[in-house]
Specification:
With 717 residues, the chain is an alpha+beta fold. The protein contains 26 helices and 14 strands.
């Protein structure tokens, strides 16, 4: 049975942004809704522009169906060209990856997106000519290499009126004053100085125009090796210890060159190791952390677990969820990165030692570790404007190659690595462990990760400040003169109206330190799938395994016959680290002081909102963290109205944006993955989804029972 909405009679045209051009379109395209093979869906028009691929049905024309959390730039059925991950064609029920020129055109098109949405289009009822045009158009514009100036970023900047003030309290770090202010804020100006040596990019095109170095480092030293071998300042701790980073010399050098470079480095180290500077600890991240290739491989495996377009696949993978999750190695990489950040924090905080992070270009893992350390140690970085300023300082101006790492131009897959996503995943661990410490929410982080693929902002579309500066001075189409005026992603009003922006702010942010022990136990999100891997002992006994002894063996079978050993972080940890880590966790949390993430086994979780938000089966209707948030917002609204009654004058001073309260008032209707997924159809768990189930005993009893959640956090104490 095929459930069909009648084809549209009225013409629906795409809403185009300034500079956006319609390139090709196809009518009578049938879009399947993610479902259990019942072929439900809707007819509409599929279009491709120089900005996006969009599906337009009759709902697109009406505003009645608008979600409360609506993006003004990218609609529910829009995919920006940069967000397309892979495109498959279906020929006679066989899936084939589509790239380059096509000889034969598919009857179905499946588009996998980088934000993990999956779109399924049937082209069986579409005219052959239109199928050829739309399929080849979509493949060409989203998958083939392109020139930087062909990005929609430039079309939009030349056609759109730029009245937005993108600064909104975010420090951009593109002026000398910004760096001097940051030095003053962190009390680093006694030992460090902002330099103008790179004005006109005479030192290096990879370095920003302005940066900070130890006062004792001369201009001559900076110029000598194009900035390599120079300690560049990231942040100063209140006790005077500082976090520095350095771009290493290439390893393959002839003897005389490497001798000269070694002598140069020794001179630099000597200068910055004597008073007034603290002792110096160097950390070569290329040897102590996974390589970029390992990170890319792990993430590629990990995202496959969530690119699910039907219920059958979901339940088939549910049976072996733990082993699949562990085999990706993604959670282990997050744990290793967080552990490294704690080690650095220990040197700065407890040992009063300067830490120098070393990496080949100092623009990848250096950015991750330095940002994490600042989020953990500086409460300013946990405010919205502080976190945005941190991303500007360490990543955008710091020279992280967003263009190459996100592969926006499809130039080289070898350069691709989700380094910035890795940071957001690590910050999310902290946000969900210590919600009151952050002014922003997990929704903010999810939206920020989506913004990586929206090419109307310059923030994530250049490799360096030099590349942006040299491409900004282009001719504008309309005025024929003057530089491009790019938008910054930090102006959230471009994407969201005030009501939607309320979801980015945490109503429970602790404005003042509250070292109350009772607040440490925050509500845990208990999902159908456990979102973290179970903890094993270093030598797991054959009898006990992962679960409590009283847990019956049937449950163990359900979770997969083989669940590999997940390393407990207490393995191979030096005593001083463990002492620092355990010592901190034994005290009440100061939400405005140092924050250390919990990194033992099950504490590292899957970022459910980002990765599961498009999968109906993974939703808890009327449950999850959003149900808690709804109750809290109701209570806050009540308190606020009482406050108004008590003292009208005082109520004027109370800040707090409660736009979201009205949206959340009926929490029973919301999904746990709100605001991205509203209430969708109920997915029915199949009685016997895979052959594995057939091997299990007591099948009838099993179907009636939900997956049992074993909370292993108690076992750790």
């Amino acid at each position: 049975e095929v459930h069909i909405k009648e084809p549209i009679e009225k013409e629906v045209n795409p809403r185009l942004l300034p500079g956006e051009l319609l390139l090709c379109e196809a009518s009578t395209v049938y879009k399947y809704t993610q479902d259990d093979g019942s072929n439900r869906g809707t007819y509409g028009k599929l279009v491709c522009t120089n900005f996006k691929i969009a599906f337009l049905d009759d709902d697109s024309a009406s505003d009645d169906n608008e979600p409360q959390f609506k993006n003004k730039i990218v609609g529910e059925n829009d995919i920006t060209l940069q967000c397309v991950d892979q495109i498959y064609g279906v020929y006679d029920e066989k899936k084939k990856l589509l790239t380059g020129q096509l000889r034969k055109y598919p009857e179905r098109l499946i588009i996998y997106c980088k934000d993990l949405r999956v779109f399924n289009f049937c082209l069986r009822y579409t005219k052959e000519e239109e199928v050829k045009r739309i399929v080849s158009g979509i493949v060409h514009h989203s998958q083939t290499p392109k020139l930087l100036k062909r990005l929609f970023l430039f079309s939009y900047a030349s056609a759109a009126p730029n009245n937005a003030d993108g600064r909104n309290q975010t420090v951009m770090f593109d002026t000398l004053e910004d760096w001097r202010d940051e030095l003053e804020r962190t009390k680093g100006n006694v030992k460090y100085k902002a330099v103008t040596t790179n004005e006109g990019y005479r030192v290096s095109e990879k370095l920003p125009l302005y940066f900070v170095v130890p006062i004792c480092v001369s201009e001559e030293s900076i110029l000598k090796y194009e900035g390599r071998g120079i300690p560049i300042w990231c942040w100063s701790c209140p006790n005077g210890a500082a976090l520095l980073k350095m771009s290493a010399f290439p390893k393959e050098q002839d003897d005389s060159t490497s001798q000269m470079q070694k002598a140069f480095l020794d001179g630099i180290y000597k200068t910055i190791s004597k008073p007034p500077y603290e002792l110096l600890k160097t950390d070569d991240l290329s040897s102590s952390l996974p390589s970029l290739q390992d990170i890319q491989t792990a993430y590629t495996r990990f995202k496959q677990l969530f690119l699910i377009d039907n219920s059958t696949d979901f339940w088939a993978t549910d049976v072996k969820w733990f082993s699949l999750l562990e085999s990706t190695n993604w959670l282990e990489i997050i744990r290793r990165v967080l552990k490294k950040a704690i080690e650095v924090a220990e040197c700065l905080e407890r040992q009063h030692t300067n830490v120098l992070l070393i990496e080949e270009s100092a623009t990848d893992l250096c950015c991750v570790i330095s940002s994490l350390v600042q989020v953990m140690m500086d409460s300013y970085s946990r405010t919205k404007s502080g976190f945005q300023s941190l991303i500007q300082k360490e990543w955008v101006i710091g020279g992280h190659g967003f263009l190459d790492r996100c592969n926006h131009l499809h130039k080289s897959d070898k350069e691709e690595a989700p380094v910035f996503l890795l940071l957001l995943n690590c910050v999310w661990q902290l946000v969900q462990q210590y919600p009151p410490a952050f002014e922003f929410t997990e929704t903010y982080l999810t939206v920020l990760s989506d913004s990586l693929y929206v090419p109307i902002f310059s923030t994530f579309f250049f490799n360096s400040q030099h590349q942006k500066d040299t491409n900004t001075s282009g001719e504008s189409l309309k005025t024929q003169s003057g530089p491009f005026r790019f938008l910054t992603v930090w102006d959230w009003s471009v994407q969201f109206d005030p009501k939607a922006q309320a979801f980015l702010n945490n109503p429970l942010y602790a404005e003042k330190p509250k070292p109350d022990k009772s607040q440490r136990k925050t509500a845990r999100f208990k999902h159908q799938r456990q979102l973290s891997l179970p903890l094993t002992q270093t030598k797991s006994s054959t009898k006990r395994g992962f679960f409590r002894e009283e847990t019956d063996h049937l449950i163990k079978n359900i979770l997969g016959k083989r669940i590999g050993k997940f390393i407990n972080s207490s393995d191979e940890l030096p005593n001083s680290f463990r002492e620092f880590y355990d010592g901190w966790h034994s005290k009440p949390v100061d939400y405005h002081g140092l924050l250390l993430p919990r990194i033992d086994g099950p504490e590292i979780k899957v970022w459910a909102q980002r990765y599961l938000r498009w999968i109906p089966e993974a939703q808890l209707h009327g449950g999850g963290t959003i149900a808690t948030a709804a109750k809290i917002l109701d209570l806050m609204e009540e308190v606020q109205s009482l406050q108004v009654k008590m003292d009208e004058e005082h109520s004027q001073a109370i800040s707090g944006d409660l736009h979201s309260a009205s949206v959340l008032s009926n929490s029973a209707r919301l999904s746990s993955l709100f605001p991205f997924a509203l209430l969708q159809r109920q997915s029915i768990k199949p009685a016997l989804p895979t052959s594995t189930w057939k091997d299990l005993e007591d099948e009838d009893d099993l179907v009636k029972r939900d997956d049992e959640f074993v909370d292993l956090s108690d076992d750790m104490s």
